[in-house]
Structures are given as C-alpha cells and as structure tokens.
Amino acid sequence: MPLYDYRCPRCQEVFELLVSASTKPRCPHCGGRKLERLMSAPAAPGRSAQIIKQARRRAAQEGHFSHYAPHERPRR
Fold this sequence. Notes:
The chain has 76 residues and is an alpha+beta fold. It has one helix at residues 49-62; strands at residues 3-7, 14-18, 36-38. The chain has two domains: 3-38; 44-76, no CATH class. Strands 2-1-3 form a three-stranded antiparallel beta sheet, with no helix packed on it. The mean pLDDT is 80.
C-alpha cells in the first residue's frame, strides 16, 4: 500500500495516509471525503559513510555479514 500526501479543502489540513487502491480516504481531522492528493518528493536512500559504517557494525554484532562484499567478510 502506498503512502500519499493529502490536503483537505474543507479544513485546509495537510496529512499523510497509507491507503489501498480500493479505499476512499477520509480526513482524520474533520472527516471530509473530498481530498486532494498532493505530489510528494521521494526521499533518497541514505548513503552516507556514517550510516553504512553503523549498519555494518550492527550486522557484525548480530553475526551476519550478508551485505558485505566477499572480500570484506571476516575469515573464519
């Protein structure tokens, strides 16, 4: 199910909803049904060196190395 941004013209609230294709969403603030779906900018995945370093440290603590390249895996 996709996450969409909506604006309610009745109460002017902007909010996010997780909706299926068959569901008619409703404003969580006023209950209005005439919602405008907004264009939202996609979030790029975090790829900073610090995030990768933290993920690898946690994986090593948990004992799995699936996201390491074969030459980076520890020798056993």
